[in-house]
Amino acid sequence: MTALHQPTTTETKIMLSDPTALGVFGLSMVTFVASSVKMGWTSGTSGLIPWAIFLGSIAQIWAASIDFKKNNYFGAIVLAAYGLFWLAVAVFWMISLGWFGPVKPDVKQFAIACFGYMIFSLFIMVAAFEANKVFAAILVLINVLLLSLGLATLGVSPELFNPLAAWSELLISLLGFYGAGAIFLNNFFGRVLLPLGAPMGFIQKGPKP
User: How many angstroms separate the CA atoms of 74 and 100, rounded?
Assistant: First the structure.
């Protein structure tokens, strides 16, 4: 009798590279360009829109989609959340500039959106403390930026919160450039060339001992 041959199964494993450097670079670029307006180095919002869409939004959302596939929970949620934020901001600027008609949006809605994102960013900040010190510092500054933008938009002490928003956004971009560069080089060389700082160790991951 002829032995029956069992069908063979071939398993293909797709290796995905770490997209974090690209996502953080996207955040760094859009905040760097946006902070130039707040610092008075440049003027107008129309020139910010391409950077908000392609770097702030598409780069971060694309990186988040890779992190979802890699089961990188922190990177996927954070990059997707802020990528969508910058896409919404870009559309808000377009509406304000009259690209979709003469009706102007209520700027108070932008302030409310900033406060909403700040609430979620506070949760992200807690997790960032247990990622590394660079991400922790960026999230602290993001919360300062969102609070300052919201209050300044509502007309609350603009002489205080406008400069605070400008400097916090600039520092976010500079820390982000360092973080993106460090992640890129560390992954490329397979060892730590530029440290990101150890987690704070405030909250232990996993089940409570």
Answer: 36
CA atoms of 117 and 188, how far apart (whole Å): 33
Nearest-angstrom CA–CA distance, 145 and 35: 11
pLDDT digits (tens, 9 = 90+) for 49-58: 999 999 999 9
pTM: 0.91
Domains of the chain by range and CATH? 20-184 (1.25.40)
DSSP per-residue letters across 94-139: HHHTTTT-SPPP-HHHHHHHHHHHHHHHHHHHHHHHTT-HHHHHHH
Q: Which residues contact 37 (CB under 8 A, 6 or more apart)?
A: 43, 44, 45, 48
The residues, ordered by sequence, that sit 6+ positions from 177 with a Cβ below 8 Å of its Cβ are 25, 28, 32
